[in-house]
Amino acid sequence: MSATTTTPPTTRASLLLRKPPRRRGDWLKHVLLTAFLLLMVYPLIWMIVSSLKPGNLILSQPGIIPSEVSFDNYRDGWGALGTPFSTFFLNSLIVTVGSIVGNLVSCSLAAYALARLQFRGRRIYFGITLASVMLPLHVLVVPQYIFFSQLELLNTYYPLLIPKFLATDAFFTFLMVQFIRTIPRELDQAAAIDGAGPFRTFWSVILPLMKPALVTTTVFTFIWTWNDFFTPLIYLTSTEVYTAPVALNTMVNAETQSGVGPLFAMSLLSLVPVLFFFVVAQKYLIRGIATTGLK
After folding, report:
1. How far apart are CA 111 and CA 113, in angstroms?
2. C-beta of residue 80 within 8 angstroms of C-beta of residue 251
3. Cα 95 from Cα 243, distance rounded (Å)
4. For residue 294, what pLDDT band results from cuts at 50, 70 and 90?
5. Distance (Å, rounded) from C-alpha 116 to C-alpha 127?
6. Residue 13: which residues within 8 A CB-CB, separation 6 or more?
7. Alpha carbon of 61 to those of 45, 49, 67, 263: distances in Å?
8. Of the given ranges (126-135, 165-174, 180-189), which has the lowest mean pLDDT?
9. Which of 103, 100, 116 lies closest to 178 in space, CA to CA?
């Protein structure tokens, strides 16, 4: 009588947990991705190195290994326009924070109305909202400029902030509508049984559950507003109210004797808030997009 051989449990478990051998194509894929990453990061590295070079060596020695390191570009660029660059950072922060608050308030209310409330023409209004997403911004520049000019609001932050409180960023309204539709309507019905009206239901039930969509709106609004150059250029005419992108453009046009070194230095400082904000809120951004039907 022959005894049957069985595989020991430990050996069987090790076979199940053993990783498959790497194929040659996997190594090639990683090499190509690393090369592509270096290609994309090289301009940023070059700008960082150039900001630390003396002005006469930026173009004469274009490599990424500087022969001489100097912080004069940061000192010269900080006051190149006669106004400390901190003023432009503060102006950008005011516009950015105001835009974030405006989008969160107006877009969330508009999204709740389009997703939950029943009123005549709701689908038509939602269709208009979707159509406005495909409308280029430049089409509205002339009528909006005439409108704010007649109100004598030019060279102020009001033309940049008022549209944000009117839910003009239809993309975020659509984002929140899609998210609210995933919330069970039974919660609304339970709130109505307890005597809550539409606004109380929105404030106490819907809004706390919209955190991923609100964070996504905050991140995108911060990045887009902080880097926005076209809209502030149209409405802002005084140096004291310039945002950082407009101030950088003024440094290019000024053709100061300090050269491009201060421009690189101030451009690098302007990127720091965006990079820091994106790194901090990255996990919330991915979670918000994944839960709003856009994956």
Report:
1. 5
2. yes
3. 8
4. very low
5. 16
6. none
7. 14, 11, 8, 17
8. 126-135
9. 116
**Structure tokens of 159?**
């033309």
Q: Are 22 and 36 in contact (CB under 8 A)?
A: no
Query: Are residues 180 and 206 in contact, defined by beta-carbon separation less than 8 angstroms?
Result: yes
CA distance 239 to 253: 13
Contact at 8 Å (CB) between 131 and 245? no
Structure token pair of residue 67: 């022969």
Domain assignments of the chain as residue spans, ordered by start? 29-70, 85-290
At the fourth CATH level, the homologous superfamily of domain 85-290 is MetI-like (1.10.3720.10)
CA angle, residues 271, 277, 281, in degrees to nearest 5:
145
Q: How far apart are CA 261 and CA 267, in angstroms?
A: 10
Q: Within 10 Å of residue 274's Cβ, how many Cβ atoms?
A: 14
Q: Nearest-CA neighbor of 169 among 140, 149, 211?
A: 140
pLDDT band at 54 (very low <50, low <70, confident <90, very high): confident
Pick from 276, 223, 267, 249: which is nearest to 48 by CA?
267
132/144 Cα distance (integer angstroms): 15
Cα–Cα distances (Å) from 94 to 204, 243, 276, in that order, read 29, 9, 18
Q: Report the predicted TM-score, pTM, of the whole model to 2 decimal places.
A: 0.81
Residue ranges of the alpha helices (H) in the chain?
A: 9-17, 24-51, 72-78, 85-115, 122-133, 141-150, 158-161, 170-180, 186-193, 198-201, 207-209, 211-226, 230-235, 244-254, 261-280, 282-290
Give residue-wise pLDDT tens across range 203-259. 999 999 998 889 889 989 999 999 999 999 999 999 899 999 999 988 876 555 456
Q: Look up residue 96 and give its two tokens.
A: 């950015």
The tokens 């709740």 sit on which residue? Answer: 112
